[in-house]
Specification:
This protein is α/β, with parallel strands linked by helices. The chain has 17 helices and 10 strands. The chain has 2 domains: 263 residues, D-Maltodextrin-Binding Protein, domain 2 (3-Layer(aba) Sandwich); 92 residues, D-Maltodextrin-Binding Protein, domain 2 (3-Layer(aba) Sandwich), CATH 3.40.190.10. α11 crosses α12. The protein starts with a helix and ends in a 5-residue tail after the last helix. Keywords: Iron, Metal-binding, Pyridoxal phosphate, Thiamine biosynthesis, Transferase.
Length: 363
């Protein structure tokens, strides 16, 4: 398995955790918060210098990770001109990675108009004083899963009793929160410290593997291994992911701009869902060129992530929407991980409600 693909999802979590524990949340105070009160240096303008019907200026979107297929809808929106259709002069997609600053920091400091993050990361930042809100979520289901070999499948949490589960050090916090949320008896599970490559699972050293459902399982399938997975989201760990985050003052003062952004994203993601290979090709050959990605693997990931995006609720209410019931479940899940925050402080889905009310054809 190429080194980049073997590491990508796990390194991403290590990066997010580091952003919380070190340079990220430590910054949410003093000079950083002082910058929150100023409107200077905004990343998108409402002036008339930009092309397009509304002249919103340049869109800056901070991605949560490297430019892989995870952001297929944005690549499609950019390449097909959906952003410019909505009044942006151009779109700059800012990649993330191990050396990048946390997404929340880039949005708070106005390096990016919009960021893509996760409720546990953003919620912790808000608790520390960051003036942020989640305005929508691509993944309705969290991508973390337990992977096992098909010949000895682990299909539900209780199947882990008496088994060895490989858990990476960077994922310890998520594992611990999941065990609490699923009301599991941790003493009945042997947690084995592992690195990034899931080779130990294929060799029988461990019985299960903690991973992203879109990543390691597909990497092993392409190498000829048959694997099974179950999502943490389906068994007691409901937490949306790939959430759009913005500053509160952007919501207050630039609602039309944010709604234009959301419309373009909706169009891009609808195209990605209809044709999973489209965004995969753009990721491998254009936006993520040079990262060692292949269209074949990226297409498999695209198909799997579409299952996290398109649910009965989003089919009914529209992409990126989150039901009140799911919001409440998210808040409870965050408490298991030590983030105590209210729904009102974390979510503001009123922009999406307006978008779909104004144009029901987008649903």
């Amino acid at each position: 398995m190429p080194a980049l693909r073997a590491r990508s999802s796990i390194d991403r979590r290590r990066f997010l955790v580091r952003g919380l524990q070190a340079g990220g949340l430590a910054m949410f105070g003093g000079p950083l918060l002082a910058a929150c009160g100023s409107d200077s240096g905004s990343t998108a303008s409402s002036g008339s210098s930009a092309s397009g019907p509304k002249g919103f200026g340049e869109l800056t979107l901070r991605l949560s990770w490297i430019k892989n297929v995870e952001f297929a809808g944005s690549y499609i929106a950019d390449s097909k001109g959906y952003y410019t259709d909505e009044g942006f002069s151009k779109a700059t997609l800012i990649g993330g990675g191990p050396s990048a600053t946390p997404m929340e920091t880039d949005v708070v400091t106005k390096k990016a108009l919009v960021g893509i993050s996760a409720p546990d990361i953003t919620g912790a930042a808000i608790v520390k004083g960051a003036p942020l809100k989640i305005i929508g979520a691509q993944y309705q289901k969290n991508p973390f899963c337990i992977m096992s070999m098909a010949k000895d499948p682990i299909t539900k949490p209780e199947d882990m009793y008496g088994k060895k589960i490989g858990v990476q050090a960077s994922n310890e916090s998520v594992w611990a929160a999941f065990v609490k949320a699923a009301k599991l008896d941790a003493s009945k599970i042997t947690k084995v410290p592992v690195q990034f490559d899931p080779l130990p699972l294929t060799q029988g050293t461990v019985d299960g593997w903690f991973s992203f459902v879109t990543n390691e399982p597909n990497a092993l399938r392409l190498k000829g291994f048959e694997v099974e997975t179950f999502l943490l989201a389906d068994v007691g760990y409901p937490l949306v992911s790939e959430a759009y985050i913005v500053r509160q003052d952007t919501i207050d003062k630039q609602r039309d701009l944010l709604k234009a952004f959301l419309r373009a994203e909706i169009r891009g993601w609808k195209d990605s869902i209809a044709d999973p290979a489209l965004g995969a090709k753009l990721a491998a050959e254009t936006y993520g060129k040079g990262l060692g990605l292949t269209t074949e693997e990226q297409t498999l990931e695209s198909k799997d992530q579409n299952k996290l995006i398109l649910t009965a609720d989003t089919k009914k209410n529209g992409l990126f929407t989150v039901t009140q019931e799911l919001i409440e479940e998210n808040i409870q899940t965050l408490k298991y991980g030590g983030v105590d925050i209210t729904a009102e402080k974390l979510f503001d889905l009123s922009l999406l409600e307006e978008v779909y009310k104004e144009d029901p054809s987008l649903i």
